[in-house]
Design a protein that fits this description.
Length: 241
Amino acid sequence: MYRIFAYCGSRNPQSRTLQAIVLIQQWLSSLQDSIDTQISWTICTPKDLRILPSDGTAREFSTGVDRQELLGIDDSGRLKTMIEHCDYLILGSPTYGHNVSGDMKIVMDRLCYWSHLFYLSGKPGMPLVSASTNGYLKVGDMLERFMDSLGIVRDPTAYNTYGMPFENNEAQGAARHILAALTSHEASMPNGYQEELFRSYKRSYIRRDEQNAEYRYWKKHRMFDCDSLAEYFASLPQVEH
């Protein structure tokens, strides 16, 4: 079974971001007869998961431990588990003042220590952005760069704006991208920006103390032995469905 997880950073039950996600889900449901494996969806909003803001200490970067998750004071552990275990990730946000929503920003803040590890390397995903007027391209760029830093192999960003409404043609195209990503037998390939990040991080982290969590992660996963992120992707085990 293929598992899709979508996080919609809007509290509005009539959210155009959420509507776009549901429309993709409907189209993908109509296409899944072409494959033998079932596809399950989990769609969450800030009303489903209580995610607290970062505590501001940034200790998780050096310790590898998110204290708030460890203490169980919010639902960040559940969120991370769903993201880790999904086969395809959608991050959707409305545009607020040329920025992601506050709820999406909190999620990004809580996951950003994963970005130094390319923690979701090779996982396919898609950003989705809605907007009433302008600023959506900036939000799309923010989500793209964030997903890139996690090691996600991105499909094109889906936009739902009044000037470019997300309708059946767009939803069908997004669904076809998702289906292709899930069923592809080709090796996942990082983009140029991800390769630049990999080279920069490698130069920095290889000089870190062995007590540093980022150094330990890179060493444990033999990332220092790889000359490129593409080589690291190729070393990852294949997931069976």
